[in-house]
Amino acid sequence: MNDATEQKRPSASAPVTKAVVPAAGLGTRFLPATKATPKEMLPIVDKPAIQYVVEEAVAADLKDVLMITGRSKRSIEDHFDRAYELEEALEAKGDDARLRSVRESSDLAQVHYVRQGEPRGLGHAVLCAEAHVGDNPFAVLLGDDLIESADLLRRMIEVRERRGGSVVALMEVEPEQVSLYGCAGIEPTDEEDVVAVTDLVEKPAPEHAPSRWAIIGRYVCDPAVFPVLHETPPGRGGEIQLTDALRELARRKPEDGGTVHGVLFRGRRYDTGNKADYIRTVVDFACRRPDLADELLPWLRDFVERQDAGRP
Q: Superkingdom of this entry's organism (predicted)?
C-alpha cells in the first residue's frame, strides 16, 4: 500500500452517514406486474416497499441515500420527489391526513440517484456508488428484505465504528434454504451477537455451506470494498457478487481494510422477494394497522375456517 493510499484511508471510527439502496433489478419473479412498475414500488398495504427501506435508513441516522436505479425506474424518483399538483388538490379539499402521507416520502431524506447501465449483479450495483460514497464507510440496504426496526442497522454501524472493517447481517436459516443465500463461516467473539466472519460462499449446496448463518440484505461496507470489486470476476450467474468481494476482505489484515464481522439477527424479517412471502408481508402489516385490523382479522378467521371446512 503506498503513502497516498495510507493518507486517504479513513480511521475505523469514521462515521457511517450514507446509505446505498440497489434498485435496478428487473423484478422477473413478479411479472407481469413488474413489466412497467418497478418491483420496489409494489405496495405493502398502501406504501411502496422501498419507502420502508428508506425509513429504516433514516431511523438509523442515515439521511443521505443513494438509489442505484435502471431503466423503467422513473417512478421511484417521482415517489421521493414533490407532487405539487397533487398536494395542492389535497390541500384544497382539506384532506390533511393524505397530504401528510404524500409529503412524507419527499421529506424523508436527501435522495440521490445513479443508473446501473446493465444488471451485472449486486457487486456491480455497489460499485456504481463509488463516486458518491468516496473514501467513507457506508450502509447497503436491499429492498427485498424488510426489517421491522432500525435496531439491526444501528447495531451494525456500532460494530463497524468499534471494530472497523465491514459488517454483515446474519440470520440462521433451515438447511434446505442455504442455497438461496450467501452463507458465512463464523467464529465467536467476546460479544454474544457479534461473530468474526472467516468465509463467505454465495448460494452453496447444503453439503458445502460453511454454516446455516445466511447473509440477509443489510451490509456496512468499508471503502476498501471498491478496489476489490473492481478486480472481482463475474461469479455465480455471470454476475459480480458482493459476497465474493467481502470474502476477499475477510482474509485481509485490518490495516488493508480487511476483517468482516457479522451481527446475528433474531428479529422479524420480511422477505418480499417471492410471491408467497410478499403476500404474507402484506397481510401481516395490514393486521397490525389499527385502521384495518378490526375489519380484516374477523374476515381472515372466517376465511381460514371456510378453507378448513372445504367451504367456498
A: Bacteria
